[in-house]
Fold:
Amino acid sequence: MSRHVAIVTDSTAYLPPPTMERHGIIAVPLTVVLGDQALEEGTEISARSLALALQKRRPVTTSRPSPEVFAEAYRVRAEAGATGIVSLHLSGEISGTYDSAVLAAKDAPVPVRVVDTGMVAMALGFCALAAAETVEGGGTLDEAVAAAEKRAAGTSAYFYVDTLDYLRRGGRIGAAQALLGSALAVKPLLQLDGGRIELLEKVRTASKAIARLEEIVVDRAGTSSVDIAVHHLAAPERAAALAERLRERVPGLVDLHVSEVGAVIGAHTGPGLLGAVVSPR
Structure:
């Protein structure tokens, strides 16, 4: 397996650790600030702890990795033998993580191509996997970047939240601010569009919103070969039920991932999140 081109992403990709190890992908952690504590996502704060803090209305914010953290990650990859690095990150419309990576790349010991995928969660994870699989097949730095960008262009992400309050607090809802006046009367379905979180539809009840989310995913998946990820925060039964229905209804399903989001995304969506990523092969 080639390791001449290394793949770096960030902790919001939510790739399973065994998958990252198998493909040689490393993730630079974002930070969750809980009260006066700054905690690294994935190692120092769990989704469960985050959900409990939100339910108790404790102040929670998030912050990007510093350029120095990225610089260290690039140095380690170079010392391990990488002659080039593809660094793939969540949407620059949501976080400044991409900007930190760009700054670090300027002084890296090997060429680093930093890509704003416009994605997040497994929508980002699928991009990292596409790049890694290209490298494993003997692909070059440019070919790995192209594979990730192609995967990003075809991938869609949709999600339901119980309340818009967390997105409002974090300033992450973009055009969906039009919902705020009626947020208590509707259950919003949102999507990633141009790297931003945008309103997709308004639905009157949680059950109808989740049913509509399922229909959207099935329609988007069609009959071609597709990977799907189902994400949640503190809603494992919802996620498992949706995943089972999608398994039955999507004829071209290749891989189906079910996982709880980490603390960074959870801080902006709140408990009850149910999301789905559709990524054609």
